């Protein structure tokens, strides 16, 4: 039997996965899934979160399985070779991979009940409508909206922001009104408001960074006035990895009568997000960053705001009655969902939410905090590297990504070499954050971003590959 200091942990995310304890784990290394022993001194946060069960016979020589190892079998795309090397996927801030449960949900829709929603009385249409609306309820529950009518399905988060800009913005903003945005925002949270400002005469004001390379919330607070009508702000930066105190920002903003739109694309997939606790007026996120399909996202809006907003697009579905000289409009959320929606995408998003909820968002967040710190500290060993954003500490948590540059090596050269020589997928470029890059004095950066299926082995192999990349380019100096 094992020593008394060991704790046996059995992962229950998907019980059918463990019917065969010798099922191979297809990742770097030879670990196999099943029952695993965690040392009492182990720091794996997932160990504390998982349920435990004592067993009689387990090979004591087996290595502990991490949270990332436990979830990897659910993602078929990860088990392949790229350019002769096993794939290491570290581009999750751009898009996440999809678990088998989501792929099956998409296939099931198209093979068994493909039909349009809200329009037919036949069986297929009724089932499609039920599943589509069930997905809306899942989104509402996932972010703790007070009602599913506060969830509007959109093509992506960008469209959701544009919906607010063109519907709420053009109806409520006037000349000299102020919109506050940080310089670290994604382009999709800047460009629509530039257009609205040009049309209405409203003024865009920008919050800078602190010396720690975090958006300066103290400056934001000082900028607030009765002229402020809207704050557009990210929850988690897609480049700096900083996490902002949204609930505090909302309280400050509401005290002067301003509304708040939160870009939660990098937070909803990685942590518990409760819109009622945040008290944000609007919040947007994208399916494809949270294990769901591309082509669908959502807008959360408080019901009292959505009900006053005019339609964003005109056409079928969003109407109540159409006459030759005028039309009346449906209540939200239908008012904002003109035409045939991304039915399969919404259903797939619902399946992704089921998957993430079964695991537990707090588990995912705890694991990613540990993995994020490991990535940051591991990258510091690379010669001449510059990592952007705050330094992690007991009081400062970074999201599970690092944007960086290596002296005298272009980030696109780094990303290309990593891909072609090592099968490592990272992102290079400006990450749709050109104003932020200009503020930092660079045109581009490389970015490695993690998710629940990544492991410390992924990080180790990435850092070794990065060092090899640096050595290769340095040899030409």
The order of strands across the largest sheet is 6-12-11-10-9-7-8
Q: What can be said about the biggest beta sheet? A: 7 strands, mixed
Structural class: alpha/beta
Low-confidence runs (pLDDT<50, min 5 residues)? 1-62
What is the count of helical runs?
15
Roughly what fraction of the amino acids lie in strands? 15-25%
Mean pLDDT: 88
| Shape by Cα distribution | globular
Share in helix? 25-40%
Radius of gyration from CA coordinates: 24 Å
Q: What is the CA-CA span between the terminal residues? A: 58 Å
Number of strands: 19
Give the key terms.
globular, 35% helix, 477 residues, single chain, disordered N terminus, alpha/beta, seven-stranded mixed sheet, 19 strands, four-stranded antiparallel sheet
Question: How does this structure look, described?
Answer:
The chain is 35% helix and 16% strand. The chain is an alpha/beta fold and 477 residues long. The chain is globular.
Give the SSE map:
Layout: E1 6-9, E2 36-39, H1 45-49, H2 67-71, E3 81-82, E4 85-86, E5 88-89, H3 100-112, H4 123-143, E6 151-154, H5 157-172, E7 178-182, H6 191-200, E8 203-207, H7 217-223, E9 228-234, H8 246-255, E10 259-263, H9 275-278, E11 282-286, E12 297-301, H10 303-306, E13 319-322, E14 327-329, H11 343-359, H12 361-379, E15 385-387, E16 401-406, H13 411-422, E17 424-425, E18 427-429, H14 434-440, E19 445-449, H15 456-474
Parallel strand pairs: 5-17, 7-8, 7-9, 9-10, 10-11
Antiparallel strand pairs: 1-2, 3-4, 6-12, 11-12, 13-14, 15-16, 16-19, 18-19
Helix pairs in contact: 3-11, 4-11, 5-6, 12-15, 13-15
């Amino acid at each position: 039997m094992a020593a008394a200091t060991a704790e046996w942990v059995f992962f229950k995310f998907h019980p059918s996965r463990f019917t065969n304890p010798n099922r191979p784990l297809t990742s770097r290394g030879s670990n196999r899934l099943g029952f695993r022993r965690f040392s009492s001194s182990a720091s794996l946060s997932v160990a504390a979160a998982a349920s435990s069960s004592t067993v009689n016979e387990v090979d004591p020589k087996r290595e502990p399985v991490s949270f990332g190892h436990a979830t990897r079998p659910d993602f078929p795309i990860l088990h392949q070779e790229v350019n002769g090397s096993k794939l290491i996927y570290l581009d999750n801030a751009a898009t996440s991979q999809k678990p088998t449960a989501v792929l099956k949900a998409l296939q099931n829709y198209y093979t068994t009940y493909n039909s349009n929603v809200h329009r037919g009385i036949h069986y297929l249409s009724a089932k499609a409508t039920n599943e589509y609306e069930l997905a809306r309820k899942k989104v509402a529950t996932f972010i703790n909206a007070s009602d599913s009518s506060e969830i509007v399905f959109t093509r992506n988060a960008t469209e959701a922001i544009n919906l607010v800009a063109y519907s709420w913005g053009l109806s409520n903003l006037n000349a000299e009104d102020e919109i506050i945005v940080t310089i670290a925002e994604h382009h999709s949270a800047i460009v629509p408001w530039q257009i609205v400002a040009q049309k209405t005469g409203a003024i865009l004001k920008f919050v800078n960074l602190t010396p720690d390379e975090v958006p300066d919330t103290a400056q934001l607070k000082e900028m607030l006035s009765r002229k402020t009508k809207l704050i557009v702000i990210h929850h988690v930066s897609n480049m700096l990895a900083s996490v902002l105190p949204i609930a505090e920002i909302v309280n400050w903003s509401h005290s002067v009568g301003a509304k708040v739109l939160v870009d939660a694309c990098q937070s909803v997939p990685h942590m518990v997000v409760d819109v009622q606790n945040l008290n944000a007026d609007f919040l947007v996120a994208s399916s494809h960053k949270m294990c769901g399909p591309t082509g669908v996202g959502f807008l959360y809006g408080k019901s009292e705001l959505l009900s006053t907003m005019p339609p964003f697009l005109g056409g079928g579905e969003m109407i109540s009655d159409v006459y030759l000289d005028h039309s009346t409009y449906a209540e939200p959320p239908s008012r904002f969902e003109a035409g045939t929606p991304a039915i399969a995408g919404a259903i797939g998003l619902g399946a992704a939410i089921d998957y993430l909820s079964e695991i537990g968002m707090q588990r995912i967040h705890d694991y990613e905090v540990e993995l994020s710190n490991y990535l940051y500290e591991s990258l510091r060993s690379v010669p001449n590297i510059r990592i952007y954003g705050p330094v992690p500490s007991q009081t400062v948590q970074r999201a599970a990504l690092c944007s960086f540059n290596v002296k005298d090596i272009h980030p696109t050269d780094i990303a290309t070499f990593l891909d072609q020589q090592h099968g490592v997928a990272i992102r290079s470029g400006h990450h749709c954050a050109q104003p932020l890059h200009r503020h930092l004095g660079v045109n581009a950066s490389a970015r490695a971003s993690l998710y629940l299926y990544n492991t410390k082995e992924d990080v180790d192999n990435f850092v070794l590959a990065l060092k090899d990349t640096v050595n290769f380019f340095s040899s030409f100096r």
